[in-house]
Amino acid sequence: MDAQSRGRADEIDPADQWVLNPQTGDYELRLPQSGGDSYRTPSAPGPRGSGRRGAAHEGGGERRSPVRDGGDERRSGGRNSEGRGPVPAQRGRRANGPRGPEGSGPDSAGRRKRKQPKGRRKKALLWTGGVMAFVLVGLSVGGYALYQHFNGNLNSVDIGDAGNKDVITANAPLNILIIGTDKRTGKGNEGYGDKSSPGHADTNILFHVSKDRTNATALSIPRDLITDIPDCTTKQPDGSDKVIPGTQNIRFNVSLGQEGRDPGCTMRTVQDITGVKPDHFMMVDFNAVKELTTAVGGVKVCLAHPVKDPDSHLDLPAGESKIQGEDALAFVRTRHSFGNQSDLDRIKVQQQFIASMIRQMKSDDTLTSPTKMYSLADAATKALTVDKGIGSIKKLTSLAKELGKIDTKNITFVTAPVIDNPAEKVHATVVLNKAKSDPLFQMMRDDTSLTEVKKQKKAAKSKQDALLKGTKAAAADVRVDVLNGGDRAGAAQETVTWLQNDQGVLKSTNKANAPEKISKTTLEYAPNQADQARALAAMMGLPGSALKQGTTDAEGLQAMVLTLGADFKGAGVPVTGPAKVPDDIPLANADKAVCAK
Question: Whole-prediction pTM value?
Fold first, then answer.
């Protein structure tokens, strides 16, 4: 709805605040002055000439801007009281009578008085709320205006079925893979390392947003992790599909670029590693770091000791500094000046940098600056490459509104637990520490927050108790078909054997493999099978979230459907998530400043 249909000026759509000034040919942000209905039009950079066609003719009268949004025209009034050129008005504002001099009060008795800027700022914060989740999506929210201009900036890639197209506003968790490539294109980037690099997956963050949008986990995956890269299907320039064969025991970073692999290949590799399927990806290169930090006016960083790195050319004193452009890129690329000079310590520095940028973008200094808001939006959309599922400003804005619901203190950065590769004498790569990574990945699959584990587990236990409370059918009356949707070979038969021999569930049947793999075990049942579902859930230790009740009753000998997921560890082993984060896994929250060591 627009502001006209809502009838509330203080809740006006931010898109309506950007209009074309036909006198200058620039887009300008309309903001209310405190204490009245008058408007100021601060200068904001925009695509010059993009709306000159049919802009304004000589003389007075109504002037129309060709900028449209959903079929509505944005109207501009006549010249103002000081004789200056026409100043665009907000869409949806209809005057009921002759308008007085600008700043002299309401135009008519029917015009509602605008509230103080507090309401406008709250609305602006909502629209820019993605910054509270992670930098890239936050910046894309700046595209709430000039849709066509920003749409033209975006690059998108068809990744086929590697992601999920319709998950943004669904009642489900949301997983976005952030990929920072080492591609050297762009002015001044030729001298960084391998200038011929096709762009590998150099920095990787799997951003998991909870189903209720109250928390998020940002999981860093080391580029030097030794893993298996699965077969992946890529779209060719002519529209045809090409299957790129997988590779075993190789660095994670070659899941992109090498052999023509696209971001969909990286997404599939992440799913194989974590059991969490990325829904979308967002990719940036070196230029993004330089341009975005410049657009935001610099990012504050803190060093525990002075750094003068001859390789990255980073030269900063101990304590706090504000960096942008080349210095910002040097900061996130430096590895020989922090910790043990490994890529793992560089990941920690990058996490600190991203958290600081999130805080900077949430600041009043950014939110109240039309110029910075426009510059950020323009730079971000030029820097981004995304999948087609979010390949428009409208979809990115919807995504950002979801992310904007997350409090910064509930955004937790963590790195996949690893150990040195035992196959190497000189440790240059790492492998997963399964004892710690398995429980961590399980928590993500179970949608368990790393910041509120106790609270969530208590709520889950209460839900489970409520679902399981009630009459339970006798084991002999439980009828269930078992499918294997996980990675454990023979899991369905293993479960059926256990149910029949140890639990007395004789009406259980092995239905072999499920149509697709799933991360969590589910039990689907009809309303008139609730007593059977309670009995089976109690036997297997299923969490309440695993129970999926249908809407129609079962008929005749229809059985429940138990699909074993990646969380299935063996027959008789309760299918529940870990109660806490594994010990010795460092966590960092986005709302806290930390000095790099």
Answer: 0.64
